[in-house]
């Protein structure tokens, strides 16, 4: 029934056969850090195993305290700790799944004072300087890796993944950037790669032949002093001979300044690198299965990568947060029903960096499976949902799934609310996938959808609903700037809906998420480079690793010239964009810098006239001689319907922007809507 013949074909590993080519990539969810969460972790993985994933890899577990990612974080170093993993492993096996434990030693990326590394060199992304290991210290780390793998076997895992990429401990030995040693663990490449080879061969010896060992190999470091291509190939060969079962791909160190997984990165942007390695290994007669990764979020893309011969497996991590049934839906001809990961990082990676439990913007049940339970309603109610933005869509479909009779009113001719604007921003094309998903859910759950109907309180009262949910969103905030009624002034709505043409020189007032997006929209012309892999690689300066060490040495970014001259302004002092997502803010700032956008903080708006926008920057007056001023000055809730409905005695619920507009995002809108709908 399925068309994804490559993706869904079994993979024979010799001693065992995986049912398909999907590896659920390791994600640190925060549930690993405390065994009190292991019950939740078991449920989370069990749902993914039930959904048909070929091989699950857990979030990283440190093999010892020095290898911690954060103080008292996840660690597997004793038999007692191994026993606590049993419920996780059993839950996955009960669903017919397979699961490997990731061993992650953070090295100098650890966020604690006990960090160790090949040399005493601080990373640019952590505040702690690591202690350089003695030879005996290196030996102790190897033994810790081996003990951790043996304990994983004892706990019942089907294998381990040894994290050798993204700039963590093992990776730090491989390059001179972080390894200045002069003993047998440094100097020549043979010495530098000795550590991972020792780790893999000793793990193989300890765990026996019938245990999966995945090695995550850094194939494109994306840092100037990264590995050369010859070194990558040598490593792959040596790790394969040392006894690894599968080679997974790692792209970019965490300190690299090139985006690797954000939504603006093209789908499958780096699969060609795995393909290049696979061809080199096959030419040398090495048949080890290779797994590729990064921005593979649909079965079409994943299947095409395998069909092209670029890999034997695909690693998908966030797509399985977004939809635990990804594989099952693909195999049952229901790929259109997949809730696609839009690569926003807002509820997964941004949570990890904030020390919060991960979830997913489009699936708030992720990592909350035992808490956010969608059950049939005890009493069926007639419910109106007003507004078909993310909040209204999530509420209406969840309520209908539970058996309620739901009518969804939307003033526009299409569903989506502000997501219809978001998807027009170059690099945010993925947002359309969420609307496609909800469109399917509306039909499947039988919601009565009334498009083009701006419903009023009287009509709602007249129809007679048991309860009304207001998901009517927001209206732009009026900033009351002198001269804002000048014809050159417009709102972000006018620009993004195409109602207004914009001149060659533009001032964007307000540097929140929308101000940044509007600036991005204005500097681009023509098709989005996110849809053109080669153009995107040129823009960011990623080259052929066979020529450029690490894929970047000597390669200059070649951004296409900006379509307009743009100024991006905020009243707050400090650098604009500081409040954007932890893992994506730097990308937005860098992208606009590459387009020569002038970002100005500490601004007071004086007046707008024929000359342009008059401002004070600090105390210094300045006039921006612009043709257009775009207001992106935040939003206010739109909830005029609430009072008359309440006066009529109707139970009213406010969700999304209609509830609170400040710091609103789709993550909060969808989560709040789903939680409410699960309760009613
Ligand atoms: P809305 O999306 O505003 O939907 C409200 C809906 O109600 C509208 O469709 C409106 O037509 C309808 N409506 C109002 N009154 C009535 C009525 N009386 N009758 C019938 N229908 C009515 N968020 C993120 O999390 N990440 C992002 O990257 C991101 N990027 C964005 C980029 C842009 C350019 C914009 C504009 C927004 C972005 N957002 C982003 C914000 C996100 O879109 C909003 O947080 C989210 O849409 C709010 O959802 P909502 O359902 O509360 O409201
Ligand atoms: P916002 O993030 O609150 O930003 C509003 C901007 O307007 C700020 O720069 C603010 O900074 C300025 N401002 C506020 N009041 C003003 C006034 N009276 N006069 C002049 N300037 C004023 O809101 P937004 O940009 O409209 O975004 C709405 C929501 O959508 C955000 O909360 C965001 O989470 C979400 N969103 C997210 C993303 C994303 O990538 N995650 C992208 C787009 C939107 P100053 O007060 O310093 O001037
Ligand atoms: Fe994907 Fe965003 Fe969900 Fe993370 S939060 S899994 S990036 S959709």
List the helices and strands and how they pair.
Blueprint: E1 11-12, E2 17-18, E3 22-24, H1 38-50, E4 55-61, H2 79-84, H3 86-94, E5 99-103, E6 116-117, E7 131-132, H4 135-155, E8 159-164, H5 169-174, H6 189-192, H7 194-207, E9 212-220, H8 229-242, E10 246-251, H9 271-283, E11 290-292, H10 299-307, E12 313-316, H11 318-322, H12 326-331, H13 349-353, E13 382-386, H14 390-401, E14 405-410, H15 419-422, H16 431-445, E15 448-451, H17 457-463, E16 467-470, E17 474-476, E18 489-491, H18 492-496, E19 505-509, H19 513-523, H20 533-540, E20 565-569, H21 585-594, E21 598-600, E22 603-608, E23 613-617, E24 620-624, E25 628-631, E26 635-637, H22 642-647, E27 651-654, H23 666-679
Parallel strand pairs: 3-4, 3-12, 4-5, 5-8, 6-7, 8-9, 9-10, 10-11, 11-12, 13-14, 13-16, 14-15, 16-27, 18-25, 19-20, 19-25, 20-21
Antiparallel strand pairs: 1-2, 17-26, 22-23, 23-24
Helix pairs in contact: 1-3, 4-7, 7-8, 14-16, 14-23, 19-21
This protein binds flavin-adenine dinucleotide, NADP nicotinamide-adenine-dinucleotide phosphate and iron/sulfur cluster.
Structure, explained:
With about 675 residues, the protein is an alpha/beta fold. The protein is about 30% helix and about 15% strand. The strands form seven sheets. Strands 3-4-5-8-9-10-11-12 form an eight-stranded parallel β-barrel, surrounded by seven helices. α10 links the parallel β11 (about 290) and β12 (about 315). α14 (about 390-400) runs parallel beside α16 (about 430-445), α14 packs parallel to α23 and α19 (about 515-525) packs parallel to α21 (about 585-595). The radius of gyration is 26 Å and the shape is globular. About 55% of the residues are buried. The mean pLDDT is about 95. The chain binds flavin-adenine dinucleotide, NADP nicotinamide-adenine-dinucleotide phosphate and iron/sulfur cluster.
């Amino acid at each position: 029934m399925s068309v994804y013949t490559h993706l869904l074909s079994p993979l024979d590993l010799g001693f065992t056969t995986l049912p398909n080519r999907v590896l659920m990539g390791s994600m640190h969810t925060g549930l690993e850090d405390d065994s009190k969460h292991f019950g939740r972790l078991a449920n989370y993985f069990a749902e993914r195993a039930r959904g048909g994933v070929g091989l699950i890899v857990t979030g990283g577990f440190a093999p010892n305290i020095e290898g911690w990612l954060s103080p008292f974080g996840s660690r597997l170093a004793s038999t007692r700790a191994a026993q606590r993993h049993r419920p996780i492993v059993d839950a996955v096996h009960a669903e017919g799944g397979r699961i490997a434990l990731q061993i992650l030693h953070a090295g100098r990326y650890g966020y604690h004072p006990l960090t160790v590394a090949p040399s005493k060199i601080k990373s640019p992304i952590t505040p702690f300087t690591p202690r350089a290991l003695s030879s005996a210290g290196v030996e102790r780390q190897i033994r810790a890796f081996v003990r951790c793998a043996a304990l994983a076997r004892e706990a019942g895992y089907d294998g381990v993944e040894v994290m050798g990429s993204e700039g963590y401990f093992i990776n730090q030995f491989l390059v001179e950037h972080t390894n200045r040693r002069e003993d047998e663990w440094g100097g020549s490449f043979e010495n530098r790669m000795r550590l991972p080879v020792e780790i893999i061969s000793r793990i193989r010896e300890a765990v026996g032949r019938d245990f999966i060992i995945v090695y995550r190999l850094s194939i494109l470091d994306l840092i100037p002093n990264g590995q050369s291509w010859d070194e990558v190939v040598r490593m792959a060969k040596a790790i394969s001979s040392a006894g690894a079962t599968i080679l997974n791909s790692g792209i970019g160190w965490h300190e690299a300044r090139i985006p690797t997984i954000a939504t603006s990165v093209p789908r499958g942007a780096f699969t060609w690198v795995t393909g290049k390695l696979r061809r080199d290994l096959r030419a040398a007669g090495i048949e080890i299965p290779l797994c590729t990764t990064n921005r593979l979020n649909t079965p079409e893309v994943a299947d095409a990568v395998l069909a092209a011969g670029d890999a034997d497996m695909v690693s998908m991590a966030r797509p399985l947060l977004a939809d635990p049934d990804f594989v099952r839906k693909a195999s049952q001809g229901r790929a259109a029903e997949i809730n696609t990961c839009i690569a926003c990082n807002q509820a997964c990676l941004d949570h990890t960096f904030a020390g919060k439990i991960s979830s997913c913007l489009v699936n708030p049940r992720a990592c909350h499976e035992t808490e956010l339970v969608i059950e049939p309603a005890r009493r069926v109610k007639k419910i109106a949902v007003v507004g078909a933005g993310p909040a209204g869509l999530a509420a209406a479909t969840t309520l209908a799934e539970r058996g309620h009779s739901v009518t969804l009113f939307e003033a526009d001719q299409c569903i989506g609310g502000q997501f219809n604007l978001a998807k027009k921003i170059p690099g945010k094309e993925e947002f359309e996938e969420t609307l496609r998903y909800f469109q399917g859910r509306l039909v499947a759950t039988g919601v009565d959808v009334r498009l083009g109907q701006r419903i009023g309180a009287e009509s709602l009262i007249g129809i007679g609903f048991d309860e009304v949910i207001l998901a009517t969103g927001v209206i732009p905030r009026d900033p009351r700037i002198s001269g804002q009624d000048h014809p050159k002034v417009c709102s972000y709505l006018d620009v993004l809906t195409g109602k207004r043409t914009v001149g060659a020189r533009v001032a964007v007032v307000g540097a929140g998420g929308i101000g940044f997006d509007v600036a991005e929209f204005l500097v681009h012309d023509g098709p989005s480079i996110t849809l053109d892999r080669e153009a995107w690689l040129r823009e960011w300066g990623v080259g052929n690793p066979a020529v450029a060490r690490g894929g970047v040495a000597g390669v200059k970014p070649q951004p296409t010239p900006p379509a307009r001259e743009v100024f991006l302004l905020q009243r707050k002092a400090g650098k604009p964009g500081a409040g954007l997502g932890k893992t994506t803010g730097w990308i937005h700032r860098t992208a606009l810098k590459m387009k020569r956008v002038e970002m100005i903080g500490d601004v007071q708006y004086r007046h707008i006239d024929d000359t342009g926008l008059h401002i004070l920057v600090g105390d210094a007056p300045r006039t921006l001689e612009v043709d257009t001023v775009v207001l992106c000055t935040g939003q206010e809730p739109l909830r005029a319907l609430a009072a008359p409905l309440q006066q009529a005695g109707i139970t009213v619920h406010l969700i999304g922007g209609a509830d609170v507009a400040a710091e609103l995002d789709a993550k909060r809108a969808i989560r709040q809507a789903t939680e409410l709908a699960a309760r009613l």
